[in-house]
Specification:
heterotrimer; A alpha+beta; B alpha+beta; C mainly alpha; A: alpha+beta; Alpha-Beta Plaits; 3-stranded mixed beta sheet; 13 strands; B: alpha+beta; 4-stranded mixed beta sheet; two-stranded antiparallel sheet; 6 helices; 10 strands; 20% helix; elongated
Chain lengths: 355, 286, 414
């Protein structure tokens, strides 16, 4: 379902676009300033400044989900044209629709994860994130100490609340053996462990966190313009061209899964992945939110997400929650499964399990 | 309304102009775009534009090696794999089925573990049995009965070769003394493995050997719960399966489940933060 | 009609720009910040929010914190309007328009802060009803946007109507237009509403342990009751000193009484919040512990916390003393300035920034604003205070009768 040959679509004169032509022409001057650093080498000459015209049309476009097929085709064509020129390689922007009868789910084995961060960087390679200034990574791996209970027996009589002279009769009320005892608590987590120490460290376990694709996503509830929404496959998506950058979703997300393009994303042309999806990994612009989409551009075409393929220990499993024979359903049925921050009542479709 | 006289207006205009110019000069002169963590950006920038690494490994360092080939998927200009610049680990598959062969026939165990093997493919191990680069015959180049005589029985004895695989052949960890080399390696056909009944198994299907003891893990693996599979996510879709030895070294697995590797670089610290300890959670209680 | 409106605008503007040396200096100072600030604003708008201090760990920046503060002051402005209209206090009815001006200017300033906060201000039209798609009734920000804008326009209508009618000499409290009183009453009710909505924008985030507290609207209203009247007192004292508009001592006294009560309620709200958090000392108390005592050497917010709390307590005690309350030219303005600044500082340094530590993934971070961010905050405040100064000055001219409509043949001679 990829659209490849829609290069001339922006030039098509029809009833829906002519309404905007006037506004377009006004917008060109301003838009040219916004897009001035883009290369415009191979863009077919339709007007004096095709980049500006594309920008103006993009600025005027509505919410992608609510567009007519014709408008979608134009929007996709504009993007393909612009990306192809900007990155110097033939880029496809798919608008493959959601799949029928599929609810995506993910399972991650925290007893296997070794904390190698390959998923983090695979995700960056696949999803065209900004490489620097800002650095955007959709997965963060926490290193959490196991329950190594080193406690001195001499302190057994000391406690909190402390014995006081105010009349506790020397009856002890609390201890102080507070040493970490593992568990999926972020209280002792460290996401910045260095690259020069080997993993796994036997005294720690590792918990990668990415968008949990909640069934009750607080981010979707918080978005004032419905730019982020849950698609029929259960994946929470963002229309990057509709997002206004207010960051209310980031404030609402209990998983720190949403990442903001604080500046113009820096994506070197040679690093750019030319197979993209409108709601997935197409290059983003400054000032919009982005997050894990379960690699929409892959999963809607049947392929596994990039983080799963990168995991060297096979700790990651992906599949259709409506299919009882899928890996994820088998894990849910047979393993000890839990959700991260269950108390937030977000009902993630990202499950952690002990395999 | 009253109008100001012309000279006053001009003076006010000039004063305003001076204020504007002075202000712009002041603000423009300050270094107002100083980045807080310039080092992190430089590192990331360098990593993003470095030459691609071509000698990569998948799960086991030095075992599951892959060479990067350019333009395997011409439609998108994808190489077969993209690897880490810092660890050479394979991060990303342009073509998940590059260099694979069908898994081959797998035994049927029970209804619930039929396995999804119709479209299963694996990376073949047999072409890599080129220890010391001895030749196309693999292990049999030496272990052909003449250069190295076939052993008479499976009694453990000290071996003068292959110490890099098993340092002391009398202390093979696998099975904690219950097993020895020739329980798994065929004495007469060194290019084959042996299952518990003495049937020969190819190096491409070690799961049939491992599974004969490790039944629980084997069932999990057949169901897709244990182990790694890439390619299509659909049940019955084409998948590349990782077999046991692609992650575990059978000679040392007893003590080292998975050989530790170096992780990829950490994310940059939040702006203005200096030491990772600062952002690390509380290690002691109060 | 058209001519009268033009002459209304021209007369008010030319009166507002007149003044003594100090007044001119104040205007030029604000203008200087606005002009220089337009450059930093240009940098931020053209390069994006990377030029400010916010990160994915602390996505809310000084603009957002200052926006909450402007909502405080804007909501509190009804405390000047309500006594005149609800309790028919004669000394305050005349001044109600000043309260409405404060409300309007601060709401507008708050909206400007939000524009600086947004990543894509160019896509603001996505929030315009019928052009874009509002996430109604789910998103709290939608409610907040609606109530803020309605409040802005309610006050704009009220101010324009009163001032214009007074200007042309047709204003009579007995014979107000039938639609006008409901508008004023609605504006009075709407004041707390903008505040409650703003509090809900924060407290609706379950993830933000420090914010998901039911006392937040109460705390906000109490802080509004302290910071707003502080500004009102300062403004009234200055108007009284430098213009011919007469403001009774009783007005100032009412305002300082409100401040006293509000500070008391703030202290109670803080105490309730801190007790609830600290007695059991669960993970929900972690941000508070971080504010109060720091965390493993990160103690940027600690002095701000104790400084703000201390200022509030000291100001509360001070304003209980009759001699301070009556010291119109010395202690009262000082206390008012202290309260205004304390609550201004409370927003970023106690409410917003420490609430993000620990982050959902257990990180502790400090916020480091950039120069551009600080300067853009100054710019927005300068725009706000410039508008406030000019509009209040113009309004005073109308209220004192110095600016009033003259028939065309009369004004043509000048």
């Amino acid at each position: 379902m990829s659209h490849k040959e829609t290069d001339n679509s922006t030039k098509k004169d029809n009833a829906t676009t002519s309404r905007r032509n006037f506004l377009k022409k006004i917008g060109i001057a301003g838009a040219a300033a916004l897009m001035s650093d883009n290369a415009s080498a191979d863009v077919s000459a339709g007007s004096s400044n095709p980049d500006a015209e594309i920008t103006a049309s993009e600025w005027l476009q509505g919410h992608f989900v609510l567009m007519s097929d014709e408008e979608k085709k134009n929007a996709i064509g504009r993007l393909e044209k612009r990306y192809t020129a900007q990155y110097g390689k033939k880029t496809t922007v798919s608008d493959a629709p959601p799949l029928e009868g599929v609810l995506f789910g993910y399972a991650l084995d925290i007893s296997k994860c070794i904390g190698c961060r390959r998923c983090v960087h695979a995700c960056v390679k696949e999803n065209n994130q900004s490489r620097y200034n800002p650095v955007i990574q959709w997965i963060q791996v926490m290193k959490i100490p196991r329950g190594n209970f080193a406690f001195s027996a001499e302190k057994l009589n000391e406690g909190f609340p402390k014995s006081s002279a105010m009349g506790d009769y020397g009856v002890q009320v609390g201890g102080n053996a507070y040493a970490p005892v593992g568990g999926l608590s972020v209280e002792h987590a460290d996401s910045y462990y260095p690259a020069d120490e080997k993993v796994p460290d036997k005294n720690f376990f590792y918990v990668p966190v990415q968008c949990q694709q909640c069934e009750k996503p607080p981010c979707v509830k918080a978005c004032p313009v419905r730019a982020t929404f849950r698609d029929p496959n259960g994946v929470v998506l963002i229309d990057y061209n509709w997002c206004i950058g207010c960051r209310m979703c980031q404030l609402a997300c209990p998983y720190q899964a949403r990442h903001f393009n604080w500046g113009e994303p820096n994506l070197p042309a040679e690093e750019m992945n030319p197979k993209t999806h409108y709601f997935g990994n197409r290059p983003r612009m400054r000032g919009v939110m982005e997050k894990c989409t379960f690699c929409l551009q892959r999963t809607r075409e049947g392929r596994n997400p990039a983080c799963l393929e990168a995991c060297p220990v096979g700790a990651r499993k992906f599949g259709n929650l409506l299919d009882p024979d899928s890996d994820v359903r088998k894990i849910l049925a047979t393993k000890k499964v839990f959700r991260f921050k269950d108390e937030m009542s977000t009902y993630p479709k990202f499950f952690y399990y002990i395999g | 309304m009253k109008l100001q006289s012309a000279p006053v207006t001009i003076i006010i205009a000039l004063a305003l102009l001076a204020v504007v110019a002075g202000g712009l000069a002041l603000v423009g002169g300050l270094d107002i775009r100083k980045e807080k963590n310039p080092g992190d950006n430089e590192l990331a920038k360098a990593a993003a534009t470095a030459q691609p690494v071509t000698n990569c490994f998948e799960s086991r360092e030095t075992y599951s090696a892959v060479a990067r080939t350019e333009n395997v998927v011409p439609q998108y200009g994808y190489p077969n794999v993209k690897c880490s610049n810092t660890t050479s680990g394979v991060l990303w598959y342009g073509d998940p089925f590059d260099g694979t062969i069908p898994m081959g026939e797998m035994p049927k165990v029970a209804d619930e573990t039929q396995g999804d093997f119709v479209n299963a493919v694996v990376k073949p191990r047999e072409p890599r049995l080129t220890y010391f680069n001895m030749g196309p015959d693999g292990c049999a180049t030496c272990h052909n009965g003449t250069i190295v005589p076939f052993p008479k029985d499976k009694t453990p004895r000290l071996i003068g070769m292959h110490q890099d695989i098993v340092a002391n052949s009398l202390q093979l960890m696998h099975g904690r003394g219950a097993l020895w080399c020739l329980d798994c390696h065929s004495a007469t056909n060194r290019n084959r493995l042996l299952d518990r009944r003495g049937n020969e198994i190819t190096f491409n299907q070690p799961q049939r050997l491992c599974g004969s003891c490790h039944g629980e893990k084997y069932i999990d693996w057949r169901e897709g719960i244990h182990g790694k599979r890439i390619g299509e996510w659909k049940t019955g879709g084409k998948k590349r399966w990782w077999v046991c030895t692609e992650c575990h070294n059978p000679h040392t697995v007893q003590t080292i489940r998975f050989q530790p590797i170096n992780p990829e670089p950490p994310p940059p610290l939040p702006r203005g933060m200096k030491i990772a300890d600062y952002v690390r959670g509380d290690q002691s209680a109060h | 009609m058209g001519r009268t409106i033009i002459s209304f605008v021209v007369d008010v503007a030319s009166y507002a720009l007149k003044g003594g040396t100090k007044y001119k200096a104040w205007l030029i100072f604000l203008l200087f910040i606005i002009v220089t600030g337009s450059y930093t604003a240009y940098i931020q708008l053209s390069e994006g929010l990377i030029t400010i201090g916010a990160t994915d760990e602390i996505p809310m920046e000084l603009f957002f914190a200052n926006f909450i503060f402007t909502a405080h002051v804007a909501a509190a402005a009804i405390l000047v309007v309500a006594p005149g209209y609800f309790y028919h206090r004669k000394d305050m009815k005349e001044l109600a328009v000043i309260g409405e001006i404060i409300a309007m200017v601060f709401v507008a300033t708050g909206i400007t802060f939000i524009l600086f906060h947004m990543g894509r201000p160019d896509r603001l039209w996505h929030m315009v009803p019928f052009l874009g798609y509002l996430n109604f009734p789910n998103s709290m920000l939608v409610y907040d946007t609606i109530v803020l804008n309605v409040y802005l326009y309610l006050n704009l209508i009220g101010i324009s109507y009163i001032l214009y009618k007074k200007y042309v000499g047709e204003f009579d409290t007995k014979a107000l237009a039938r639609w006008f009183t409901p508008v004023i009453y609605l504006a009075i009710i709407w004041g707390p509403l903008i505040h409650i909505c703003t509090a809900f924008v924060l407290s609706s985030n379950a993830r933000m342990g420090a914010w998901s507290t039911a006392v937040m609207p109460f705390g906000f209203l109490a802080m509004a009751g302290a910071s707003g009247p502080s500004l009102v007192i300062l403004l009234f004292l200055m108007i009284r000193k430098y213009t011919k508009l007469h403001i009774n001592d009783s007005v100032i006294d009412l305002m300082s009484t409100i401040i006293g009560w509000s500070l008391g309620i703030i202290m109670l709200v803080f105490a309730a919040e801190y007790f609830t958090a600290l007695y059991s000392n669960t993970e929900h108390a972690a941000p508070l512990n971080y504010s109060m005592f720091g965390h493993e050497g990160l103690n940027m917010y600690v002095p701000w916390f104790w400084g703000t709390v201390g200022t509030i307590v000291i100001c509360f005690i001070a304003i209980l003393i009759p001699r301070v309350r009556k010291s119109y030219d010395r202690w009262l303005p000082l206390v008012c300035i202290a309260i205004f600044l304390a609550i201004l500082v409370e927003k970023p340094m106690m409410l917003v920034f420490p609430a993000f530590s620990p982050s959902p993934l257990g990180e502790y971070v400090e916020y480091h604003p950039t120069f551009i961010e600080l300067y853009n905050v100054a710019l927005t405040w300068a725009v706000g205070f410039l508008s406030l100064t000019l509009i209040v000055k113009g309004a005073v001219g109308i209220l004192t009768g110095e600016v009033r409509y003259r028939k065309p043949e009369a004004s043509a001679s000048s």
